[in-house]
Automatic annotation (TrEMBL):
Residues 13-141 form the Creatinase N-terminal domain. Residues 152-368 form the Peptidase M24 domain. This is M24 family metallopeptidase. It comes from the Bacteria.
Amino acid sequence: MRLAASFYSALHERVRAELDRAGLDALLLDDPLDVAYLTGFSHFPNERPVAAYLPRDGAVLLLVPDLEREYAADQRAAADLVVYPEFPGERSPFAVLRDAVSTDPVRAGYAPSTSVGRAAGITSAFPDTAWVPTGLVGELRLRKTPEEIALHTEAARIADAMLAEGARLVGAAVGGAGDLPTETELAGHVTRYGAAMMYAEHDDVVVVPMLTGGLVYGGPNSAQPHRLPGGDRLRPGEPFMLSLGCAVGGRFVESERTFLLGEPTAQQRHYYEVVREAQQVGTEALRPGTRCVDANRACLDVIRRAGLGGYLRHRQGHGIGLGFHEPPWVADGDDTVLAPGMVLSSEPGVYVPGHAGYRISDTVLVTDDGPRRLTSYPRDLTDIVIGV
């Protein structure tokens, strides 16, 4: 699924309006996600610069190395291609870009994420231009358009299906159809399932660095929130976590659940129910006009009031879009005011060393009417118990 050419033409006009307001003549962005946002060209970033140049007047340009030329054309990038031969090469790639620019901008912007080395290359190639950092495209990326929301919604459907398939595979093993899977086996299975589902149901799949994927960990391993899957086998009586993600048209979601293998103990019930309540309260707080810091506090205070504050390891959530993790941050220190069109994770968790971690995550769209969960896998205790 790709965004139509009309999406990019409308986006370019929005960016130009922001350039006018900021007193800028052009914008040059080299962050891979900014490039994908402005042109639809997704690529694997490396040492060879790829950049989008958007002037206040004139064609949008996409700077690519020669080895990316055909690929950019195949992706129908919403920009005119400017190709340089190799890097480092005899000339700077940005000097090649300068040759394609009709008039030097007087004042132009680049993203704050641009490295010092890249910024030096840009200013050297455009010596008569005053270059300033600007976050105007990052601000535009915060609020998704209806076209982008449709992609997030489809990604959510597939991510939920991956969760269901993971639970099915484990349930079949508990029922006697073989050994319980290892973390790596389960992660590989659900990732392949989601990718196969996407290719079976869509003719034009946009491949980004991660199409489908996720973290899987069981028992004490799940107390390490970003641990990679290993060779440990899931064990009866222990929780395990499926932390899954999916991108459709380059737009991500995450859908995460903690499952319990066998009849839950009183301790397991308590940990899970506290996290479930915190996730419900935190999700309800994701409303227009609410500051990220306040939503985070409302969410995590549920866990603190239950006496489990010592097991907190992270914030309530983060923004999701072209990046799996991107602003705004639903965390202490982020005063961003939520607005319709923002897409966020709501994923509180508690992590008990030597025992397990418990986390529930949904991808949530902020609307005028309040929060809307895009992912919808059930969250009640009875829905996540396997083998009873």
